[in-house]
């Protein structure tokens, strides 16, 4: 059996989510997106066997290859990595949620590629860590971007996404996640419905849960260290 320890690790994560939600005073459900980057299709099958149906991939091409290899199973595919505009034609309509839209031109290209009558759910990625190497719209520019996306007929903005800085400093992790939640709250008061907060990965998901995450993106803690 591939990843024989996965059910136990998943149970531990779910227990931790419950504890940290209690700390934060939250009661909403938290969705676990199993990130299978660099692992083969067997990781997806293992996730399904353990009870996870939502699977995240960082790269469009790798995701499409796995989708073709797993036509016999029911998976909800998420794109959690950076999406380049020239790959939008391959991504539109292939994912239940694209987490990493941070520009109006990228959203417009997705909108153009979606089949008429359909809608592509997305999250807006926000750079809450203030790191120049990270993707994401700057917090101050978020209101303008949300207003631009509102007019796109085939794009459905469902919430916001961020990553904290690569650090063990819990205060800095919390600052980034709290900022995203506050940005969501301000945006909703301005008329945007943004129920989803995608924040938290293997190293920092407990803090994200305390700050109100509705979905967490977990790879290493479930599947072990990646090979690439």
Number of structural domains: 1
For the record, what is the CATH homologous superfamily label? Answer: Alanine racemase
CATH topology: TIM Barrel
Structural class: alpha/beta
Can you name the CATH architecture?
Alpha-Beta Barrel
Task: State the separation between the terminal residues, measured CA to CA.
Answer: 22 Å
* Portion in strands: 15-25%
What is the global morphology?
globular
Protein model, in words:
With 228 residues, this protein is an alpha/beta fold. It has one domain: TIM Barrel (Alpha-Beta Barrel), CATH 3.20.20. 40% of the residues lie in helices and 17% in strands. It has nine helices and eight strands. It has an eight-stranded parallel beta sheet with strand order 7-6-5-4-3-2-1-8. The longest helix has 20 residues. The protein is globular, with a radius of gyration of 17 Å. The mean pLDDT is 96.
Question: What characteristics describe this protein?
Answer:
40% helix, 8 strands, TIM Barrel, single chain, eight-stranded parallel sheet, 9 helices, 228 residues, alpha/beta
């Amino acid at each position: 059996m591939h990843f024989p320890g996965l059910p136990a690790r998943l149970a531990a994560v779910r227990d931790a989510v419950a504890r940290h939600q209690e700390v934060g005073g939250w009661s909403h459900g938290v969705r676990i997106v199993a990130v299978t980057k660099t692992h083969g299709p067997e990781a997806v099958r293992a996730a399904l066997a353990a009870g996870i149906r939502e699977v995240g991939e960082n790269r469009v091409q790798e995701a499409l290859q796995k989708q073709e290899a797993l036509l016999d199973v029911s998976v909800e595919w998420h794109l959690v990595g950076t999406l380049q505009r020239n790959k939008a034609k391959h991504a539109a309509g292939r994912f239940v949620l694209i987490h990493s839209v941070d520009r109006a031109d990228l959203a417009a290209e997705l909108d153009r590629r979606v089949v008429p009558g359909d809608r592509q759910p997305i999250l807006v990625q926000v750079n809450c860590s203030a790191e120049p190497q990270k993707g994401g719209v700057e917090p101050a520019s978020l209101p303008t971007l949300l207003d631009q996306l509102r007019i796109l007929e085939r794009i459905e903005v469902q919430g916001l996404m961020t990553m904290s800085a690569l650090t063990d400093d819990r205060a800095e992790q919390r600052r980034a996640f709290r900022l995203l939640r506050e940005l969501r709250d301000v945006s909703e008061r301005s008329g945007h419905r943004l129920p989803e907060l995608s924040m938290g990965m293997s190293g920092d998901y407990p803090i994200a849960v305390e700050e109100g995450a509705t979905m967490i993106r977990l790879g290493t803690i479930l599947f072990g260290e990646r090979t690439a």
